[in-house]
Amino acid sequence: MKRNTSTKSSVSCETWGQLNGSSCIIKGVYPSDSGVYWCESDRGECSNTINIRVTTGVILESPAVPLTEGDSVTLNCSYKEKYAKESTSNFSTAFYRNGAFIGKRSEGRLMLIHVSKEDEGFYKCEHPTKGESPENWLEVRAATLSIHPSRSVFFYYETVTLSCAVPGSFSSWTVKRNTSTKSSVSCETWGQLNGSSCTIKGVYPSDSGVYWCESDRGECSNTINIRVTTGVILESPAVPLTEGDSVTLNCSYKEKYAKESTSNFSTAFYRNGAFIGKRSEGRLRLIHVSKENEGFYKCEHPTKGQSPENWLEVRGDDDDIRFCYGFEIEDESKTMIVQKRSIKQLILMNARSVERCKLQNSCTSLPKIHSRLLL
């Protein structure tokens, strides 16, 4: 566990907390503990980040991690004097989202039932005499369907596992599919269910179709198209890439009843029907992709013909933004910093300005915060 605060960067738990295995405990937080916290391995891999803010007065208690569509949550408005032992929520409370009044409660609790993306935003609460809380960002994510192996085209008899990623969700999600013969069929009918995952052992052309996650209240995830075939296939990602990612496209050939496929042949590659290159083995490496790399890809075996075309989607970096740090700068403008996933930029934002500050390619290089960064 590490943290960045206003005074120190990339400091391990041993310096500021009590380490217990992979957990870290701070007994008696203080404003100096406000900052960005994350997990980091000895090889430098980083987890998501969580922002912690320590203050007095009025606060809005909201989830530190994103909700999933369909979840329910209670936002709690509390007030506590600096040296008081207990906080209280027993007061008439006004609630706001994105600066707009959304309701008043006789006690400081706002219940959001079955949230959707429309509920996402900046929330704050107001005590009748003690003022407003700082704004908190409430993030709502859709469930995500993933697939293993991570591709969309498969040979006969391969094993495929589809999983619904719903971190922090209290909803029940299952994998469903549409095929050429049946629609909206749950995993229990065609696969082996294991929690929110579904495994097909020995896929067949009848398993070709569209797959998605669906909650017990009808919310749906992204979709993945699966195609089962023989002959030549192009193995490409089943889910979109983000600008800056790298990927290897693999051209494989397999006879219907053969045990193993092969990529050991001279291969021609095409994008949107145009020849883009030849490789002595069936692998095409795309480095740091951009939107220009998006398109329909296929490959060609020298004697066995071409693969079906696969769509390679590349999303802009702005499509996936996650919060790193929230604070109030010295001129009292409400601001926050968000980290862009793929190229590790920070965006410093207030109500009317955006300033981009490039980072080194490391989660430990968050810069110190200065008000001069504002426009």
From TrEMBL:
Keywords: Disulfide bond, Signal. This is Ig-like domain-containing protein. The keyword Protein transport does not apply. GO terms for cellular component: external side of plasma membrane. Gene3D superfamilies: Immunoglobulins. InterPro entries: Ig-like_dom, Ig-like_dom_sf, Ig-like_fold, Ig_Fc_receptor, Ig_sub, Ig_sub2. Residues 56-125, 128-229, 230-299 form the Ig-like domain. It comes from Oreochromis niloticus (Nile tilapia). One of its GO terms (molecular function) is transmembrane signaling receptor activity. One of its GO terms (biological process) is cell surface receptor signaling pathway. PANTHER family: FC RECEPTOR-LIKE PROTEIN 4, IMMUNOGLOBULIN FC RECEPTOR. Signal peptide: none annotated. Pfam families: Ig_2 (PF13895).
